[in-house]
Structure formats: C-alpha cells, structure tokens
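Hi all, a correction to my earlier message: I attached the wrong file for Uridine phosphorylase. Here's the right sequence:
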Amino acid sequence: MATPHITADVGEIAPLVLMPGDPRRAERIAKDILDDPKLVSEVRGIGAWTGTYNGTPMSVMASGMGIPSVCIYATELYRFYGVKRIIRVGTCGAMSPNVRVRDVIVATAAHTNSSLPHLFVPDASLSLAPSFSLLHGAGHAAKAVKDVPVHFGPIYSSDHFYLVKPATTEGLIKLGTLGVEMEATGLYATAMAEGGEALAILTASDHLFDPSQDMTAAERETSYQAMVEIAANTLVF
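and the right structure:
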C-alpha cells in the first residue's frame, strides 16, 4: 500500500525512524549508520531508506522543512506504516548563552507560534512534549557522548524563519529556551494525535547572538555525528 507521499510497501519501513529535514542528510545518515540500507520511497525527492542498526530494523526518512511538511510524513508513517517511534535529527539556531554551535540539544518541550495546537483542540493551548520513554532513553544515550556538550531543555518551533522577533527571543531565553527550529512542534503534536512516540534531537548550527560561530551549509550537512549516535541509540533503548 502506498500513500500520496510515500511509495514504500507496508513492511518496508521499520517501526523505528530517524527523521532529518534535509533529503541529502537523510541519505548520508542512512549510508553512515545502517547496514544494507535500501531506498524504499522517493516521492518528491524525499527519500526513505531501511536497513538495520546493530541488528535492529531502522529507517531514515526526510521530512522537508516546516511544520506542515513534517506533519504529512509523520502522520502517514504512524497511521499507515505502523511506525512506533520517530526521532527528528536536525539543526537549530542556538539562543541560550549556555549553548554553542555544534552542541546537541534534546528538546524536552516545543514552544511555538504556530496555530497547529489549536487545530487539534480548539480554544486550548497544548503543551507539546516528547514521549517520556524516548526522553529517558536519550538521557542514557547522551552519557556515552564525551566530546560534545548535550543540553536538555525546551526549544521554539517558528512558523517563519525570518520572523523571530527580538522581544519574543528575549522572553523565550528568560524561560530557559535553548534554540529555535521549525519542525518539532509538528512532530510532537502528530505523535500525540496518532498514538506514537516522538523526540527531537538537534545540533546547533548557528547562534542568534554570535554569528562568528555559524556553520557553513556544507558543515550543516555533515556535522551531525553525536546527534545521530544519541538518536539511534535512543530508538533502540
């Protein structure tokens, strides 16, 4: 069975999925960490690869950019392909002074300016959070990473890349927000709606207040080893 956005047959996508935003990063991750990765879907250039990680079936599939895109793919994976766990592995902009570029952030909550939470429950502001079991597993997996700082805390999912206002940023930082990105809210909300598990683990690729730290586009595509190691080991925890 195929969906409008995924052409894999049922069974060709594993119950455990790593989900970067960038299709090229998805391909690189799949070939780096999976044994015998097989391309099982490539609709609109959004690739999905399935193989094994230390003997456990695992898939890597891109989500594209933004909350609407990740909601499409996550919904179809949970609802039609029997996926149980999805971990977003992507980049974010650091906003906390305690986070430096190349540090890893495990998102314990996803604040947002998106209207998505109100689509699920009108007149209510949902608290969008990951599953406890994945968050617990990430805590254990992070202990094995010695050369990259790992931070646990809330992040902010913005609906507009260029409209993160200074007043908003200031308020978020005061509340302990670590970074800003564009997908975690969609993944967390979809997991809640579909009865799946989700977590976002991010690499800080730039800093809102110190551009001298920023990664190049090429570095963003390749500087993910610690993040992916934590995420893969969390999926199988």
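Sorry for the mix-up. The mean pLDDT is 92.
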